[in-house]
Structure formats: C-alpha cells, structure tokens
C-alpha cells in the first residue's frame, strides 16, 4: 500500500518526462496483468492456496473476522454462486430472457458489499447480484429484470442499494452526485463525544467494470468526486474482459494508477480474495467517511463465464487463461483455509451446500411462477405527477384489448 | 402540481416589480431557493460570474457555494450528478450554458433522468430542472442559436416548458422546481434583457398552472400558436395584421411536453385556421405534433390545412444569414395569408 506522500505531485526530474522510453506493447500488457502474489501491485491477505498473509496496513480492518465471520463470508459466496448458476441454467431453459453471470467475482462482490454499513449507499451496474445479496435485496427481486417483467423495483432506500444501471458508466456520475449530497448534508468527517470518528457518517460505493473506465461519464465522475471531495469509493471490478475486449483495449497502465491523475488514492486488490476486498473496501470507506475524499479500488478478478448468456467467449479468449484462473478461485481458497485451520469440517461444508441447493430451488420455483405484468403496467409511473394524456392512452388501449376478450380471441 | 407554489419569504421581493425576463428568472430562482433549502443551482460559471447571461447573478454570494455550485466543465457531469443529488433528496437546478452544448448530457437526460421513476415504479423521484437558453437572433457563432426542444419532448418521462414573458419566467421556474418530475426549461435567450418586454410582475400570485397553454391575444380570423421567443414575433404580427383589419388569435403554448392543446382546439373550432410558429426546423418538430393532433381533433372545423412558419430543415446558418432562417413577422403574416386564402 503506497503511503500518502505518493499522492503528492512529482518533483521536477521525477515526473514521467524524466523516466525511460515509452513501454513496449508487451511491457504494457505485462504491467496490466502483473498479479504476482506479494508483488507491489496487488493487496492480498489470503493466497489462492488458502494461506493467510499478514498485512501491517490492512489486518486491523478485519480484526473482527473470527472463524464464525469467515464461515459467514464463505456461506455468502457459496449461496451467491449457486443462485447465479441456477439463474444461468434457467436462462438456458427459456425461463429468463438473459442472465448476466458473476461466476468468479463472488469475493469482490461479497467482500466489498459486506464492508458497507447500513447507512451507506451502493450504486451497481448490472452484474452486482452478490452485492445486492449483501445489502439484503432478495435474489428474487433481481429476477424480474432478466425475466423481463420489470426493470428492477426493489426499495433502494431501505437496502442502500440503488437500481441497476445498464448504460455503461452512467451510475458513476449518479453516485458522485449522491455522495456530494452526503457531504453537503454534513454526513462526513464528524466525531462523537469522545473525539472518535462518528458511527453515523456515510459513504457511497459505485461499481463498474474495466470496460467502463473508457467512458466519459467515469472520467467525469472521477473529476467531480475529486474536486468536491465526495465520499465515494470507486470499485472497479477488472474482470479482464469487456465482452470480447481485453483490458489492453481500454488502458496502457494498470487501472488503479489512473487515480493519481485525478489526485486521489488508487489501489489494486486481489479481487478473488474476500478478506482483502473486505479490508481494503473498509479502509476506503473509512477514508471517505473521514472526509478525505474519493478512493479508487481496482479489484483484479476474472469473469469465469460469458459476458451474458448471449455471449460466446470461445470466440475471443483461450481456455488456457480460464484454467489458470480456476486455480485462483475465490471460494476454494476460503474453503481450504477453513478446513486447514480446523474452523469447519465436511459436515458443515455439506450443510452449506444443502442450504445453497435449497436457496436455488426456492429461486427456481419463484421464477417459474412469476406473474405476467398486466398491460396497464406499460403506462404506470412514467411521471410522479398525474398525467391525463397517458391515462387517456391507457384507457383507450385497455378498451381496445377488452374488445378481443369479448370476441373470445384472447 | 405536487404542492402549491411557495411564496417567497416576506419582504424578499416587492409585490409588484417591473422586470425583464432575465431578472424575473433570477428572482424566481432566488424565491425557490429561499422557500426550500434543498433547491441547489449548479452549472458552469453560475457562481461568481452569475452565468454567462447573469441569470444566477448574486445567488452564490447570498446562498453560498454549497447551494450554488460552480461545476467542472462537462455537461454529462452536471446532469449525472444532479440525478444523484435528486436521489439523495435535493432539488437540483442545472444550467446548461447554451442549448448547443447540451448533447454531452443527452445520455444522462434520456437514460437516467427521464427513466428512473418508471424503472423503479415510482420509488425514485428525480425532481431535476435543466435550464437551457435556446433560440437565435443574437448574432452568435455556431452552436449558440439552436432549438432542440423537440428532441426532449420525444422522450417519455421528461417535461418540457418554455416561457415568453417576465411574469411566466418568474413563476414557471418556481413551478418547475416544485414539480416532482424532471423538467427541461427552455429560456428564450434573445429576450433575456429585452427592454420592450419589461413589465410588471405580480410576485404574490402565480398566473396559472405550469402545464397549461394560454390565449394571449383574442381574435376571430386565424389562430396562431407559438412558444418561447416566437410568441413575441406572433404578437407583433397580430398587431400588424390588426392594422389591415385582420384579427389573429395568439396562443402561447408554454408547455411543450405535455402539450396542452385544449385551448388550441377550442380556438381552431372558432377560427377554422391554424398557423404554428417555431424557430426549430419543421421536420419531426413540435409544430408537426400540433398539426397532427389538430387535424385529428378539429377535422370538421378546419377551413384550411394547418400551416407552419418555422426554421428551415438545415443546420443553423452563420448568423449573418439568420434573418432568413428565423420566422419573422413578415413570414408569419405571409403564412397567415396562405391560410386565409384557402
């Protein structure tokens, strides 16, 4: 973790101009993909082999993670993955119009989601089913989007989880505005009676992918959050692929390093390490709540499945890459760590799996029985205020439909 | 309207004042900010400078930098953060410097601002006002004289209005801010500081609801409908026509989406003729919509087809040529002549 001094502007003679020649394409790609455990590039607390690495900087952010809490994180990830696989299968069976799989990104989503406090707000894109789960949004409430019965109608205020945003990058600016509001309302940088940071201070987290970092809205979100010191954590899940485009199609330098250009800290975390994601996100949220302004987290992970169920990854990436990432599985490393440490036995693992299966079965039953939305729903809630014009359109259409009913044609 | 328009704080504004449109907007914004501390103004140069047209003059000095935000120079950022602020419970009023610069923000307007309420079945309200100076006649360079309002009227979920006189400017901006739906507020920039239009504004009582058209001159021979900067052109044309013994009824549309065409239908049923006037190009425009709806509702009353006097279907020309592009008094009268000759 670089020290705060490194956020200052470089001295003359230290800047880019003073450095060596431009990196070659190979060097660029190597830099983008530098994820060696223990390397300077990535924060990791639990290796793919399940070994716990001590971190002077981040251990204190997970000092409360006892065996029970770790089992909880494992259970979260297993349930989320199982629900994801069930939804994927239901799409294949024609029960969902499309599914957006999160396979491989469970640690990034559960770790960061569990770092949030109830008063915080999360702005997702459209793959954050795991974050939704940690915010108490029932998986069933996500299904409407993918069965095309609604656009996502959960209670965003109650859950602190904003509606999904499908246009790439839009939500980053919306989150910046929301975080500015938190700041304007005086919800950052407070202390309690004893001079300690207030437990009611707030922050916002916004999720986006590596592809989104090319969008103007993401750049503008970085600019706005920086100049207004907004309490916003930019959580970039770099899953290596924007549909068929690799990260080198979006950037010449590791994405977390972009933060420096905007004047706030950037950090790369092992996105397949739930403990590191939890710790680093807690740290970043704390920075925000203290009033220090935004932080960029690049969660370095991998999209183990397709972009969506309409995609065919075999056309653009090598199966070798998938095999390499299988060894970095976010759930398996926790399982190994729990087993080796004696924190969980086979009976417990079996119980979690049974619970996940029941969770999925429940989801399936719900999905198959989802009611069709009534036709008047087309016209509902376009405006907050009454709309006589739309009411008239609706009534005219419903009476037209009623004609079919009377003629026995429906 | 979700709530009655709040009166400005006693003593803040004299009950009757002679105002230009620009000053009326300034005082309207001030009244809205005094009535509700969740109302914030944001945009490029709106603080110390008071906006390039000085519409926000003095607001930052009196309300501070957290109520009047000088933003970075990016329109998507202005609209996108306003959406987030509205989700948080604020009532942001965005200023776009010129209509030609709104397009970087078009994505946020059409994808988020217009659709969040529908997407969430009413759980998220986005009471954002986007103020847009629009229209030509100021001798400007490219991108500073356009009329893109129909592009926004075509997007469900948005409301679009335009004012044409100081009293409406003062009240409509407050009513738009009070509206729980997003409102695109198109301001006739060439009339901002027009001394001819300076008139008494009653700051105690609004002249009527926001989303309503209004007959601004009564007549019997032909109906003329317009909005924003074209209303003054049509009123001047009606004055000139009266000297020749022709009686024109002029309707100020005021609301572009939703359209309030009941007064237009009622008028056309009496006059049998309609001329629609707008600076915007004619194809797929507000005047197209008016023509379609009037022939649908007033088919048996029409003595002539609905005719239009509009900007041409060209990009806005270099402003040395704008007198040709803009529908002026003569072109309005010529179009009325054609309608009368049917």
From TrEMBL, chain A:
Domain of life: Bacteria
Name of this protein: Pyruvate dehydrogenase E1 component alpha subunit
One of the protein's GO biological processes: branched-chain amino acid catabolic process
PANTHER family: 2-OXOISOVALERATE DEHYDROGENASE SUBUNIT ALPHA, MITOCHONDRIAL
Residue stretches of biased makeup (Low complexity): 14-23
Molecular function in Gene Ontology: magnesium ion binding; oxidoreductase activity, acting on the aldehyde or oxo group of donors, disulfide as acceptor
Key words of the record: Oxidoreductase, Pyruvate, Thiamine pyrophosphate
Residue span, Dehydrogenase E1 component domain: 75-360
The keyword Oxidoreductase appears for this protein: yes
Region Disordered, annotated ranges: 1-24
Presence of the UniProt keyword Thylakoid in the record: no
UniProtKB/TrEMBL annotation, chain B:
SMART domains the record matches: Transket_pyr (SM00861)
Cofactor field: thiamine diphosphate
A GO MF term: magnesium ion binding
SUPFAM superfamilies on file: Thiamin diphosphate-binding fold (THDP-binding), TK C-terminal domain-like
Keywords noted in UniProt: Oxidoreductase, Pyruvate, Thiamine pyrophosphate
Residue ranges of coiled coil: none
Domain Transketolase-like pyrimidine-binding: 19-194
Protein name according to UniProt: Pyruvate dehydrogenase (Acetyl-transferring)
Species name: Amycolatopsis methanolica 239
Gene: pdhB
């Amino acid at each position: 973790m670089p020290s705060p001094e490194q956020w200052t502007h470089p001295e003359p003679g230290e800047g880019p101009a003073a450095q060596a020649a431009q990196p070659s394409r190979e060097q660029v790609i190597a830099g983008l993909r530098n994820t060696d455990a223990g390397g300077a590039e990535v924060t990791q607390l639990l290796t793919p082999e399940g070994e716990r690495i001590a971190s002077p900087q981040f251990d204190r952010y997970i000092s409360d993670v006892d065996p029970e809490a770790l089992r909880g994180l494992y259970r979260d990830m297993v349930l989320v993955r199982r629900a994801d696989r069930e939804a994927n299968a239901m799409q294949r069976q024609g029960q969902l119009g499309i599914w957006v799989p999160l396979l491989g990104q469970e640690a990034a989503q559960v770790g960061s989601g569990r770092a949030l406090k109830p008063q915080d707000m999360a702005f997702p894109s459209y793959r954050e089913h795991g974050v939704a789960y940690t915010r108490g949004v029932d998986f069933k409430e996500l299904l409407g989007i993918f069965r095309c019965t609604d656009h996502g109608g959960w209670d965003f205020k109650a859950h602190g989880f904003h509606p999904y945003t499908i246009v790439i990058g839009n939500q980053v600016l919306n989150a910046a505005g929301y975080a500015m509001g938190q700041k304007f309302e005086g919800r950052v940088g407070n202390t309690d009676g004893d001079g300690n940071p207030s437990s009611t201070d707030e922050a916002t987290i916004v999720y986006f992918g590596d592809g989104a970092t090319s969008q103007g809205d993401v750049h503008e979100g970085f600019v706005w959050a920086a100049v207004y010191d907004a309490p916003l954590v930019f959580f970039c899940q770099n899953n290596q692929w924007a549909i068929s485009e690799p990260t080198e199609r979006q950037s010449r330098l590791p994405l977390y390093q972009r933060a420096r250009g905007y004047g706030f800290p950037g950090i790369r975390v092992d996105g397949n390490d739930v403990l590191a994601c939890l710790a680093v996100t807690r740290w970043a949220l704390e920075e925000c709540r203290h009033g220090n302004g935004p932080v960029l987290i690049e969660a370095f992970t991998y999209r183990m499945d397709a972009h969506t169920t309409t995609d065919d990854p075999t056309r653009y990436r090598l199966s070798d890459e998938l095999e390499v990432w299988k060894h970095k599985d976010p759930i398996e490393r926790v399982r190994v760590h729990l087993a080796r440490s004696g924190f969980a036995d086979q009976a417990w693992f079996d119980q979690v799996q049974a619970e996940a299966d029941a969770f999925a079965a429940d989801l399936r039953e719900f999905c198959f029985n989802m009611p069709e939305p009534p036709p008047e729903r087309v016209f509902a809630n376009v405006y907050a205020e009454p709309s006589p014009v739309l009411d008239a359109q609706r009534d005219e259409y419903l009476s037209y439909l009623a004609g079919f009913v009377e003629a026995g044609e429906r | 309207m979700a709530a009655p328009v709040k009166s400005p704080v006693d003593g803040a504004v004299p009950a009757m004042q002679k105002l230009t449109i620009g000053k009326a907007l300034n005082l309207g914004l001030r009244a809205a900010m005094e009535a509700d501390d969740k109302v914030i103004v944001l945009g490029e140069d709106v603080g110390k400078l008071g906006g390039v047209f000085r519409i926000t003059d003095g607001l930052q000095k009196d309300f501070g930098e957290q109520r009047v935000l000088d933003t970075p120079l990016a329109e998507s950022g202005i609209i996108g953060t306003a959406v987030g602020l509205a989700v948080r419970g604020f009532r942001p009023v965005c200023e776009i410097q010129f209509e030609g610069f709104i397009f970087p923000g078009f994505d946020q307007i059409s994808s988020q601002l217009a659709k969040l309420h529908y997407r969430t079945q009413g759980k998220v309200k986005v009471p954002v006002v986007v103020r847009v100076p629009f229209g030509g006649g100021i001798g400007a360079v490219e991108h500073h004289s356009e009329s893109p309002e129909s592009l926004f009227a075509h997007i469900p979920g948005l409301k679009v209005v335009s004012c044409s006189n100081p009293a409406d400017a003062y009240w409509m901006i407050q009513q738009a801010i009070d509206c729980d739906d997003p409102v695109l507020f198109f301001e006739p920039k060439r009339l901002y500081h027009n001394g001819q239009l300076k008139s008494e504004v009653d700051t105690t009582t609004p002249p009527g609801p926001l989303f309503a058209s209004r007959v601004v001159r009564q007549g019997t021979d032909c109906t003329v409908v317009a909005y924003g900067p074209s209303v003054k052109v049509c009123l001047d044309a009606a004055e000139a026509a009266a000297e020749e013994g022709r009686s024109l009824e002029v309707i100020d549309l005021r609301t572009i989406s939703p359209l309030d065409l009941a007064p237009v239908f009622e008028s056309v049923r009496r006059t049998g003729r309609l001329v629609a006037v707008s600076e915007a190009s004619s194809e797929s425009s507000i005047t197209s919509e008016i023509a379609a709806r009037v022939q649908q509702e007033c088919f048996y009353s029409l003595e002539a087809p609905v005719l239009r006097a509009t900007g041409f279907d060209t990009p806005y020309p270099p402003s040395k040529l704008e007198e040709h592009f803009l529908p002026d008094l003569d072109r309005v009268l010529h179009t009325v002549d054609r309608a009368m000759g049917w």
